[in-house]
Amino acid sequence: MVRGKQTIIALIALFSIAVSAPKTFIYILKFENTERDESIDWLSQGFVDMLNAQLSTKQGVVLKNRQDLEVIMDNRSLMLHQPRGSKNLLLLGKYARALDKIQINLQLVDVATWEEADRRKFSGKYNEIPKLNTQITETVQTMLLPFTPKAETSKYPALLDAKPSPLDRSYARSSQEVSIGIDKSLESLEASMDIMTGARGVVVEPDFDKTGGEWSMDITSDPFISGDPDIAENTNMLIGILDKLMADPYEVSITRPEFIYSEDHIGKITVNLPVNFAIKGDVIKDMLTSLPYSGLKQEGSLTVFFFDKDQFAFPGELTKRIKFGKYRAVPVIRFFDNKGAVKVVIVDTPEKVWHTAKSNRVRYIVERKFAPLIDFTVGGWSLQVAMEAVNIPVDYSFMIDMDEARNLQRISLKFVPEHELETFLRPYL
To answer: I need a labelling partner for 111 at 20 to 30 A (CA). Which of 15, 170, 311, 373 fits?
Structure first.
């Protein structure tokens, strides 16, 4: 009896496989950054994630990755266990940037025969990533369409297929959003009516003063921010990104210092500290993907963004911070001994005032080797942000007594805004 049940179950399983709908198995690999542009390297996996998100809901499509491809290449007989009529397709992508344009190359390969099934080439704007993602998705769906097998109509009922919901989820979601939108509109209307009728006790004061027959109005505030909501939103995003640049703009790698015995100075050791500076890749990404810049100029590793005042309101405080160098930061390196006391301070700045400073508390060293990789300029009707995507290798060297060198235990590198240098260095001068 048990054996009979097992036989029936096996037959049902085989029958289900035989009548199940064919599938399109698509293997999506990371896109190739052909120019090895580090500022856009994040798109290599970003395009894959986007395609997976968009194609995951497409009926009949099964998404696969590199590991899945390696498995099926090691054992190609696995394709025989797939539903009859299924396809195995490999999607390869390449991309490169030219100024604000992204060139995309897509290739579709039949895994069973390794023959090219389709090839497409197009371009999009780098500052419009959502549109570029949509363009890629639509192109891939078009490429897949001829190779997506059509499910055969069976005279037998599908034993394991679930019935679709009679109500389209997208329709239900849209209805819910419309309902929420109506509720918010009613709330806004009620609030406006309450203010007009005085129900909420809101009194609107005039924004001008009248004294001795003279009317005056304060126009020193930032009038543009309270105007166009799009401009206000853009301005807030810009300030947020600039603050991020200010807080942590650079990637820094510090190599263990070299201790070189001096033959000319007995009892002295030269300490050489190699440091490499580079701008963070996500900073450029945020600038390109989040802000509607009006112009883009690229010369080699230098990228300059232009932000016009017709899309941004530049508050007076922001302009003042840029003009006075509050968005410029310089590296300050400190060497600590085994008791936690600062013994050596290295300041890398072009400001002459710090090159003439002296200290009796620590070994105070001033260099001018670091070059800022981010620069801000405000003039006319635009804000310019220049970014240099290069590495700056720097060696900081100084001579110290051998006994002091033995006690050095920790190194700290901190970017300090130029306008805060005096406060930061005061304990050491």
So the answer is: 15
